[in-house]
From TrEMBL:
Source organism of this protein record: Azospirillum picis
InterPro entries documented for this protein: ComplexI_Subunit1 (IPR052561), NADH_UbQ_OxRdtase_su1/FPO (IPR001694), NADH_UbQ_OxRdtase_su1_CS (IPR018086)
Lineage of source species: Bacteria, Pseudomonadati, Pseudomonadota, Alphaproteobacteria, Rhodospirillales
Keyword Transmembrane helix: yes
Principal subcellular localization: membrane
Protein name: NADH-quinone oxidoreductase subunit H
Membrane-spanning parts: 12-34, 75-97, 109-132, 153-174, 194-217, 238-260, 266-288, 300-322
């Protein structure tokens, strides 16, 4: 096999099988199952089986796809596919410490930043293309929330990139592999008190990006009946579930890579990485959504423009001041 063909095969394998694609989907469904089981136990319920998210996907795959007469059919069907593709690609861009380094041809931290915005845009397109008034409300809420939490995320990524770049004698680095390598050699940023504002800002960011309570405002069942997803059924709705599972792995993996990627090599490193994702998911997602009620959209926007934004700016300022 020629070198270009070998490189192409490696890229496709990373996107479709490991660490993106099939692997990220399977583990994302496991995280969803663990989340539902723990939430049920915290609420003194039995809860669904661990594999219930997989059962839901199989059921949806066997259902008919219904498209509203007033919907824009091409956009209606393309939105969930775009979200799934973006998250499969993003999963292949994030290193697994001691196990996997992404090919530089796939992209870097800036590409991950753009890809993380695609699922929210896909939900907005879905809401507007469906022709439903509830979808339009979900669209407006998703857009407002996205504009609020993207600022802190950008500042957090800039803080990590600048700190790593300055430590290596430059100014900024957007290579996730270099960020991981530096922390493995010099210690995780989680242990650096000057990075704690950025850590807290990221911890505040990912619940909204994952669409969980108290920030599940665009899809609030009791208010807008799933909002952008109200008119979806069958395989397209299943693709949105796939997108959600992939996004959970991507966002949690990004947090691990940015702040505490230290791990052994080989299979032990993969196991440590997955355990970190599980702990972060159960502690930062399940406990949060079972303990706190849903915010109003104005409360959520004000919260992100106030506290996470201030923390992220303080973290970046601290890194620049110590340079």
């Amino acid at each position: 096999m020629s070198a270009p063909m070998s490189d192409l095969f490696s890229l496709l394998f990373a996107i479709l099988v490991f660490p993106g694609g099939l692997f990220a989907l399977c583990f994302g469904l496991v995280l969803k199952g663990l989340d539902r089981r723990l939430a049920a136990r915290l609420q003194r319920r039995v809860g669904p089986p661990l594999l219930q998210p997989l059962f839901d996907l199989v059921k949806l795959a066997r259902k008919r796809t219904l498209v509203p007469d007033i919907a824009c059919k091409p956009l209606f069907l393309a939105a969930p596919m775009a979200g799934c593709v973006s998250m499969a690609l993003a999963a292949a861009l994030i290193p697994i410490p001691g196990v996997y380094d992404p090919d530089p041809l796939l992209g870097d931290l800036l590409v991950v930043l753009y890809l993380l915005a695609v699922p929210a845009v896909a939900l907005m397109i879905a809401g507007s293309a469906s022709g439903s008034s509830y979808g339009a409300i979900g669209f407006s809420r998703e857009m407002a929330l996205m504009l609020a939490y993207e600022g802190p995320l950008l500042m957090v990524l800039a803080t990590v990139a600048v700190k790593t770049g300055l430590a290596q004698g430059g100014f900024v680095t957007f290579s996730l592999s270099e960020i991981v390598r530096y922390q493995q050699e010099h210690g995780a940023y989680l242990a650096d008190p000057w990075m704690w504002p950025a850590v807290l800002a990221f911890l505040a960011f990912f619940p909204a990006n994952l669409g969980i309570a108290p920030f599940d405002i665009p899809e609030a069942e009791s208010e807008v009946l799933e909002g952008p997803l109200l008119e979806y059924s069958g395989p397209p709705l299943g693709l949105f579930k796939v997108m959600s599972a992939l996004k959970a792995v991507v966002v949690l993996s990004l947090g691990v890579v940015l702040f505490f990627p230290t791990a052994p090599d080989g299979a032990a490193g993969l196991l440590v990485h997955l355990l970190k994702l599980a702990v972060l998911s159960l502690a930062g997602v399940t406990v949060l959504r079972t303990a706190i009620g849903r915010m109003r959209i104005d409360q959520a926007v004000l919260f992100y423009l106030k506290w996470p934004e201030a923390l992220a700016i303080a973290g970046l300022a601290a890194v620049l001041a110590l340079a």
